[in-house]
Design goal:
Number of helices: 4
Number of strands: 0
Helix content: over 70%
Oligomer: single chain
Strand content: under 5%
Distance between the termini: 67 Å
Shape: elongated
Number of domains: 1
Order of helices and strands: HHHH
């Protein structure tokens, strides 16, 4: 279990470029010699990509929700007018 955690931390350091040059080179050499390690790195990289995409989608939904509230509810009329005045020709 401990070895697995250490390996995961090394993969993370490599993917997030937190290793110094020497450690990075050693890790890259290990990946060349161990196809299983290389596959683990690819899966962790895919996982990071999925998490990042999910976070972006969540943020996009949150922004859209705020937009809908600000531009459709009557109690925000003065704010809406101030924003719209920024985009009108004078």
């Amino acid at each position: 279990m401990r070895t697995s955690l250490i390996e995961t931390e090394q993969i993370e350091a490599h993917l997030l470029q937190r290793s110094d040059t020497g450690e990075a080179l050693i890790f890259e050499a290990k990946m060349l010699l161990d196809p299983e390690l290389k596959e683990k790195v690819l899966w962790q990289q895919k996982t990071y990509h999925i998490i990042k995409s999910y976070g972006r989608d969540q943020l996009r939904q949150e922004i859209e929700s705020v937009h809908q509230k600000l531009f459709s509810e009557g109690r925000h009329k003065s704010f809406r007018q101030k924003i719209m005045s920024l985009f009108t020709k004078k």
